[in-house]
Structure formats: C-alpha cells, structure tokens
Amino acid sequence: MGREDPELDFSFVLASSVHDMKNSLGMLLNTLADVMHEYPPQNDAHAKSYAVLEYEAARINSELIQLLSLYRLDHDKVRAHIDECIVADVLSEQVARNYALLQTRAIDLVLECDEALTGYFDCDLVGGVINNILVNCARYSKSKLKLSAEKTPEGVCITIEDDGPGYPEHMLNASTFSETKGSFAGGRPHLGLMFANRVALMHKSKSQQGFIRLNNESSLGGGCFKLFLP
Amino acid sequence: MSDNPYAKMQALIVDDFESFRITLSKMLQEFGVGSVDSVPSSNEALRYCNSKVYDIILCDQNLGKGKTGQQVLEVLRHKPNLNSDSLFLLVSAESNKSIIMAAYDYEPDAYLTKPITGQTLGQRLERLFKQRIALAPIYKALKERQLDVAVELCEAELKSATRYAGSCQKILGRVLLDLGEYEKAENLYRNILDARQLDWAMLGMAQAKKLQGDTLSAQQWLEEIIQFNPLCLKAYDLLADILAERADYQGQQKILQQAVDISPLSILRQQVLGDVGFKNNDLLTAANAYRKAVKLGENSCHDDVKFHESFAHAGIQLAKLDKNLASPFVRDALKVVSEIPLRFGKNNSSKVSSYLLESQLFSASGEERRAADSLISAQKIINSEESVSLELRIELVRALRELGKKEESEKIIAALLEEYADDEDQLQKIDCLLDEPCSAKNKALVAQINKNGISYYEAKDFSRAVDCFTSALQDFPQHIGLRLNLVQALMGQVKQEPGNNQLLTNMQQTMDYIRKIIPDKHAQYRRFRQLEDMLRAIASAKPAD
Q1: What is the pLDDT of residue B84?
Q2: Which end of chain A is more exposed for a tag (fewer CB within 10 A), N or C?
Q3: What is the pLDDT of residue A184?
C-alpha cells in the first residue's frame, strides 16, 4: 500500500494483470465447456483437440493462481488461515475441479481417504497445491492417478501418485524446490514445487512444521508427491 | 432418482454477466433443481428475495453497480426475512477469500472461486445440504433458544468424532459463553489451544476473559491474536470495545484506525471511528471516517442519517481550525446534507435539518449570503410547524451563531432552559450550547474532568492532562474554562517537547476558538489575555522554519 517510489512497481502491475487474466480465463473455460457439451467430439482428432484446449487452459489457470498466491505471500498479504478441514472434502473438490481434464485425457483417478479424517491447514492454499500437482501429473501419467491421505506421526500426509516416467533425478533432491536462483538452472523453475514448499512451511504446530517430499516409489509405478501438514 | 431432493428446490442466480448466469442456470437445471431464477443486479436480487423463498442463492461478489454480493448477504442476514435461512453461496474470481470476507460480519455458507464447473458446484451443494441435515437439530435448538439442548447435542457430536465435530466445537464455545458458563468455555478453548494456535479459539478465550471482567487478560489475548493474524478484524473490534469501556478513547481510536486501514469497506467500523475521532477532537480522522461511512451507506442496510449529519458537523468544526484543510470536506458535506431529504424521507424535520446544516456549512466556507438564505428556508418551515424537536432547535442555535446572530440565539437558549428546567435528560442535551453546563450530570462531569486534568497537570503529566481536557471539547464546545485549561496543559507539554510543532498549532487553534466565543465581561477574560501574551512569547522564541 501507499508506495511512494515513482518507479513502476512491476510486481504489482503483474499481479493486477494476472488477476484480470484469471477472470478472462474463467469465462474461456466455461465457454469451452459449453462448446464441448453442445458439440461433442465426432472423432479422435476432435477429442484430442478438446483435450489439449482443456489441459492448457487448466494449466494456465493453475499457474496464474499460483503466481498470484506467490505474489501475495511475498507481499505479506496472505497468511495461512489455519483451521480444521475435512481432508476428503478438500481432495474431492480438487478432483471435481479437474473432472473434465481427467476425462478428456482418459485418466482413471482413485481417491482414497477416510471420510472423517481431519487436519489443520489452510484449505485454499493446500487446495491450490493439490490442484497444481494434479494438473501436472495429468500431463505425465499414462492412465492412472491416485490421490490419498492418511494420518502419520508428522501430521496429515497427502499423497499424489502417477504411473508416468517418474520425477527426474535432479528434482528428487529437496533443494530443487527451495527458492535459490540455482533452481532455474535446469531450465524450468519448478514454480509448482516452490509454491508447494512455501505452503508446507507455512503450516506449523507447536512442535512441527510442514514439508514436501518427492520420490519415484509410486504404487502405480511412476512419481510420488507427498505433502505433510502437522 | 425419482425423488431427487433438488426437484422441489428454488434457486436464484445473481451475476451481471449473462453468459455466466446461463452457465450456472444450466448446471442447476442439470442437477434437477425445480426452479431457477436469474437476475443481473443486486437490486433485482433483493426484489426477488422479498417475494419468494429460495433454497439456494448463488451470488457473484462483483455485481458492477449497486451492492456487492457480500452486501446482498448482509441485507438477507441482518433482519429476519423470507431468505434468512437460504443457502448463500458467494462466487468470486478472487482466490483469497479472507480479503473480501475480512470486511464483513456475515459469512456466506460457501465461497466459490471462478471458474466453477458443474462437478465442483454439485459436490459443494451436496456437502452443504448434508451438513445442514446433520446439524439441523442443533440449529433448531439454537433458534428456539434451547441452549442446554444445543450444548448436549454438540457434546454428543464431539464425543462421536463425526466430520462435523469441528463445527460443533465452535458452536459449543459460543453457546457456553452465551449461557454464562465461562469456565467451561475457557476449558474448551484451552484444550484446543494446547495443541495449536487457532485464532477463533484465542478469540473465544478473550471473550471468556472479558465476560468475566478480566479485561487485562482479554487484552493480552487480543494483542496476541493481532500479532498472529493481523487480518483477524474481530480481535480489533473486541479490543476497541475494551478500550472504550476503560474510557481510553485515544487507544480505541488507534486500534480502529488499524482495522480500518486493513479493511476500509466496513461501514460499522467507519461509523465508530468517526464518533471516537470526533470525541477525541481529531476532526480530520472523524471527517474522513464519516465521509467513508456515508459513501458506504449507499449500499448498506446500516446507513443512518446520524452519520450524514455528523459528517457535516465534523466539516464545520474542522473549518474553525483550518479552512484550507476543511474545504474539500465542507464541499462534500454540502452535497451530502442537501441529499438528506431525498435519502431519508422528505418530511419537514429532515428538510429543516438539511437546511440548518447547509447554512452552517456555507458559513464555514465564508459564503454568508447563502448561509443566510438556507437559514431563512429552515425558519420558514419551523414557523409553520406546531412543535419543533429539541435537536432541531439546538441545530438552529448553532446556525444562528455561525451567522453571528447572537441575540436571537441567546433568546432561543433562554426559552429552551425555561421550557426544560425540570427535565434533566433534555438539559443534558442543551449543555452543548452553554458555557457552563446546567444539568446535574454534566456539572459533575465537568468538575470531574477539571479535577482529573488538574491533578495530571500538577504531576507534570501534561500529555494526559491534554487528553483529559480535549475529551470534553466536543461535549462542551462553549466551555471556556476547559479550553483555557487545555491551553495551559499544552504549554506545559511544549516545555517538555520543545520541537513538537503540532502542540503549538493546537494551542493557537484553541486560542482562536476561544477568541471567537469569549465575551469581554467573562470571568476568565484576564486569564485569556495572559495566556495570549504567553503564547506570543513562545511563538516568537521559536526559530522560524
């Protein structure tokens, strides 16, 4: 607020336009859903085009949300608003959000979570993280995704597994998603993981702090992402 | 599927974009919702809500002109009406709900972020209705004020650790506070807080402490919440209440100012900030806050003519201190008061009030001819009325005084004093026009203020002495003794803080004010002249900057 320096605050401009873009994209996604509903694909090529449109739009959307969240985290406009959440609700909401995407890509998603499992976290921020990883996994997995959650000594653990080629070696190292400039060296900044890491760190109990883990020991044979929330 | 629970339901969609209304309406129809209405504006939404009961209201936050979605909710929840219990889902493109919700007292049942898909909406509605059904007995008990029953039901829900246990914990805490079971409530909150810091539980703790009269502990909890979550506006409000109860109006103003900086859209908070700023004689703060309150009032069910009038008063008072600073406020206030009859009913008393304030505002901006015209318009109506309220006659005295019509105004005051000689309550209201108060209560109050102020002064605690005398200026603006005491306390403070120019300005403004109202024959006229000399000496000793 009240920035006195006369120079253009680029991050602010960026954040405002990201906000606008997100609104337009919302309309675009809805229109796209309407079009697909009214003109169901006639052949495989159609279906494929639809899938690409759907996926890319979803990806832009989740990236924009992330950018906005990162901007806000950075400017101290957002703090994790931590309260009790029903884990199954948060997970199924993200699945519903990506329903069309998963359908067009013919991905079979399994959700495994005790209906009564609760955790203490910011459901918007965590939902954003899950959405982002889901959208990303939808790209790399062949046909299966598994989203699950359980209680562990380190808190509630949310796991997203796929049957794709797995995370590349250099990403398995935890330092990839810490915010050093070096993480850009690989060509991709792994913004999603950086965001996930940020969100995890914002969750603290009296004695513990949240964290994320990546490995390639997915029960489906591909990559495995874990988010721990104390 | 033959007995689809949605079949009997009625839904309302509010969004200014047609394509969005169509999309949502299609989604709801696909779920099997029996009837779906859709409207583009808040006005139409409220009109529909006045004549029809909806089970579901899907409302966009940003509706262009008129009310926002949150303000529509505010109207629906503020007073009992057909749609007090409808499921209200607020839709927005904003992914961070705390930014929008921070400003308001009512929470929607759910908050949906665009883009909305049929799947997310369907899922959310299903969940909400499930929860409604599961918690229906508790809500029924709350509605019927059977609080003991509500407590039992909540405790049972907690024991069986259902998915609604979390919601029940919050309800239980509030009910226990309501029942006066403070220790039980404290235990509940303490158990939660032993595991982790949660702002609502800390807030509950603060409330429990406050209700038990332990305001110091309550204050500590609240300060901790504000540190932990600066967006928790309820904590600011409660803290402001505590400070007001303690008569620490400066502290109250500071906290409210912080809350308003975070969330400028809350009309109630702006109203209170205006009042406390006025009380603290911080007219700039008051004028700013009232101006916002008036503006926000356009779309709010909390609008009140009182704050339109207060805005004018703040402008008029400010003009007495600093014409330049006041001029934009005076200009705005002229517009605001001219619209009072339009907005609050074209009856004679609202017209008179509007003219009298207009007259004072014109006086404040130096437009005497127009001030006199407005006064004449007011007097015409007053003379045609059989009786005129005390409040309006007080306003009339003020308008006459601004125009320098001393004799006329004194005549009215004398008449008022005679008429209400035996009515302590009314006399208290008249005191704001008098040099020395006439009501027993205010006499005692002024004596007390003087006593406190002087004891601070003697202890060389000048800043508290200043606060003490300042606090009385709005209630007794004509009281010369209090103002002279203020000047003297300020002089003491200047000696302690020689670089503080603000004090000097304050002193000069106070003296200017006295100069305008003090009669030559006043008992304290000599003291006034002495203080004037002293002030001149201080001002000339100060190096020019």
Answers
A1: 85
A2: N
A3: 41
C-alpha to C-alpha distance for B325 and B50, rounded to whole angstroms:
45
Q: Is B500 on the interface with A (CB under 8 A)?
A: no
Find, among B213, B217, B195, the residue nearest to B205 by Cα.
Answer: B217
Contact B95 A82 (CB under 8 A): no
State the Cα–Cα distance between residues B207 and B190, nearest whole angstrom: 13
Taking an 8 Å cut-off on Cβ atoms, the answer to whether A124 and B93 are in contact is: no
CB contact under 8 A, A120 and B114: no
ipTM value, please give it: 0.77
CA atoms of A101 and A103, how far apart (whole Å)? 5
Residue A97 to residue B165, Cβ atoms within 8 A:
no
For residue A81, CA distances in Å to B108, B244, B356 come to: 17, 29, 50
Beta strand B56-60 with B87-92 is: parallel
B319-323: average pLDDT: 90
- Residue with the bigger pLDDT between B33 and B70: it is B33
Residue in chain A closest to B228 (alpha carbons) equals A79
Contact status of B196 with chain A (Cβ, < 8 Å): yes
Specify whether the CB–CB gap between B150 and B138 falls below 8 A. yes
Question: What separation in angstroms does the CA of B278 have from each of B266, B287, B292, B364?
Answer: 18, 8, 15, 17
Q: What is the pLDDT of residue A187?
A: 44
Contact state of A82 with B198 under an 8 Å Cβ cutoff: yes
pTM of the full structure: 0.84
User: Which residues of chain A neighbour B95 with C-beta distances below 8 Å?
Assistant: 22, 65, 68-69, 124, 128
| Burial class for B311, CB neighbours closer than 10 Å (0-12, 13-18, 19+) | buried
C-alpha distances (whole Å) from A26 to each of A72, B173, B395 are: 20, 39, 55
User: Considering CB atoms only, which of B162, B195, B198 is closest to A116?
Assistant: B162
Beta strands per DSSP E along A70-180: 83-86, 108-112, 118-121, 144-152, 155-162
